[in-house]
Structures are given as C-alpha cells and as structure tokens.
Amino acid sequence: MNHFIHIFMITFFSLLVFFISVSNCACDTNPTNLAGCSCAGHPGGRYCGFELGCTNGFDDIYQCSGAGDGGICHFGPCKNGCLADSPNSKCQ
C-alpha cells in the first residue's frame, strides 16, 4: 500500500508541474507584434520572427498552428537571439 501511495504522489505532482508549465505559455495576438508575420507554407511549430517575415519581432519566437487557418501566436522576445531550426526553433 505504501508503494502505491508513493507512485500516486509522484505521478500527481509530475502532472501538476507539467500542466502549470504548459499553461504559463501566453499567446499574444496583438497585431503590432504580428506585423508582417505569415505562417503560410509553414507546418505547425515554433519559428523565429525572421523565418516568418515579421517586421517588428525579428528575433522573437512565434508559434504557427499548422491547421491551415493562418493561426499565429507571439510568445515574446528571445534574450540572446532566436535559433532557427523550424519547425522547432527556439530562443538561445
């Protein structure tokens, strides 16, 4: 019984940490931050602003929905620049 409780607690807290970390990713759809950006021709994933033709957030990180609906989210600037590795680009 003790073993079951330990496994349950570890699983519960792992899931809690996962959901908290995922829910903190705020999607910014402010038109100023999306100026010039286009996900056309890009599968879903993360992209640097320069990969999407963005005029304001050149080194910011963005998310394309991949649903063919043009959905795009701005996640914010990269402190040390953006590392292009689409569709899994990331901040440095």
TrEMBL record:
It comes from the Eukaryota. Keywords: Signal. Residues 1-27 form the signal peptide. This is EGF-like domain-containing protein. It comes from Gigaspora rosea.
